[in-house]
Hints:
The protein is of the alpha/beta class. The chain has helices at residues 40-51, 72-81, 97-106, 121-128, 136-149, 169-178, 205-216, 279-284, 289-303, 323-326, and strands at residues 6-10, 58-62, 87-92, 111-115, 154-159, 181-186, 219-220, 230-233, 240-244, 257-260, 265-267, 277-278. Strands 7-8-9-6-5-4-3-2-1-10-11-12 form a twelve-stranded mixed β-sheet. Helix 1 crosses helix 9, helix 2 (72-81) runs parallel beside helix 3 and helix 3 packs parallel to helix 5 (136-149). It is globular and about 60 Å long. Residues 15, 21-22, 62-63, 65, 91-93, 115, 157, 159, 186, 188-189, 191, 323-324, 328 line the site of S-adenosylmethionine (SAM).
Amino acid sequence: MPKIDYLRISLIDKCNFRCQYCMPDGTKLNYVLNQELLTNQEILTLVRDVFIPLGFTKFRLTGGEPLLRQDLVELVGDIARLPETEDLALTTNAFLLADLAQPLYEAGLRRINISLDSLNPETFDQIIGNKGRTRWQQTWEGILTAHQVGFNPLKLNVVIIPGINDTEVLDLAQLSIKRQWHIRFIEFMPIGNPELFGDKAWIDSEELRRQIRQKWGLVESNIQGNGPADVFQIPHAKGTLGFISQMSECFCDRCNRVRLSADGWLRPCLLNETGQIDLKTALRNGADLIQLQAQVERLLLLKSEINFKDRDSGTNGTYTRTMSQIGG
Ligand code: SAM
Ligand code: SF4
């Protein structure tokens, strides 16, 4: 089991998109009330006084859509300035990024992951549940602005869904050839609304690699991250292709992360909440931070026994939480 030193922090469970695989139309989502969201000060206290003393050095801000959070730039600055922070990253849908890329960069953010499932505006709008004027263009501008501002690495997350965007694997992979962009294909996980796409909604990473190999060839990259992706490269491409294959290949033994939900629950695994801790209530009740550290340490020990495949229906039914609610 690797050292667990990576905290993913969900800043908000709301989103300006309704991706079919994450917040499908018709799913009733009970959003966390504003007063139940962790405040910036609470997040900073947890990071600085609970997680860093336990050896955490890597932090990712996510959601829901983190760019919807009004005080995001301040929080980025606060975490980036902590001397123990080795790695601070953000995951976003990029719709609001054109205006925010520069302030985020100036606040100290250097790494960004952007979700982009299609290069075709119509397919894109279908996936994100948009019924009005296309949102693809503004998203693409957000991506280009992040590139110009200097975010490096810039990673694009893609979920391939059979019958929807599976014809675009090569077009998306091609983005890695001329630019130093890292395209990461994530297998769809049956979270939140598993019935949506029938029995087998994901395409195995190996099938995607086969298509890419046939067209350009594919070699293992020497840039391997510290996450779950297996990283490859089209020969002579500037960027890389990562494959996150949680459905076809279990990588729990490599997992180095825990997740903090927007309402302050610390959970050991995406699909398993055994032993989860309500850190927000503890903080608001004036808990001793050393005792909180001890509680978190126990959760980290427990994590080594938990496996993604042993999906747990959860103590309070939160297995039905979507990725936007858990923090993807
Ligand atoms: N809104 C931001 C975004 O879309 O990048 C951040 C939150 S989103 C939940 C984080 C990532 O989770 C996205 O890359 C998204 O594609 C992925 N995701 C959401 N639901 C998923 C599912 N059921 N299976 C696999 N990936 C999923
Ligand atoms: Fe929103 Fe991200 Fe979920 Fe899409 S994947 S609905 S952008 S939180």
